[in-house]
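ok new one. same drill as before - structure tokens go in, u give me an amino acid for every spot. 155 of them this time. try not to just spam alanines like last time pls lmao
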């Protein structure tokens, strides 16, 4: 059987279904907080600086608790105790000095527990801390110049 030219009639085009574009659903990202309040009224809180790591600690029965867990000596796993109202020592086998303690929560910012300006503001607002003088000064922005200007092609 031979194919006829009439079999290829272009007047009767079959409609080819075009794929439908995907439906774009815009979802808003949940806006998280930069800092969640840690300290609560009626609880005893302080600040520890252990190996240049500054964090808020809760005192429960005279023991240091950070992030909901009790803090222990990193050398012998002994219990940490506060001596002379400002020094943290191991009360276990090694008895080593561990770091500093302060009952003043403002020391969290003084000891640079939060380094960035934005985080310092968020922590101070959430925890009710006083900002330091340097945080209250206006921010000096970088100058409007580029490294590429050093390589000017016009020379």
């Amino acid at each position: 059987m031979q194919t006829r030219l009439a079999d290829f009639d272009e007047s009767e085009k079959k409609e080819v279904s075009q794929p439908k574009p995907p439906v774009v659903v815009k979802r808003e990202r949940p806006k998280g907080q930069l800092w969640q309040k840690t300290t609560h009224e009626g609880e005893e809180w302080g600040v520890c600086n252990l190996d240049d790591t500054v964090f808020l600690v809760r005192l429960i029965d005279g023991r240091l608790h950070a992030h909901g867990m009790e803090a222990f000596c990193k050398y012998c796993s002994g219990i940490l105790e506060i001596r002379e109202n400002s020094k943290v020592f191991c009360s276990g086998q090694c008895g080593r000095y561990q770091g500093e303690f302060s009952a003043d929560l403002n020391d969290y910012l003084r000891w640079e527990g939060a380094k960035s300006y934005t985080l310092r503001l968020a922590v101070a607002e959430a925890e009710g801390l006083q900002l330091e003088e340097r945080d209250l000064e206006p921010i000096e922005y970088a100058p409007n110049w580029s490294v590429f200007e050093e390589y000017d092609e016009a020379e």
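Residues 117-127 form the longest helix (11 residues). and btw The chain has three helices and seven strands.
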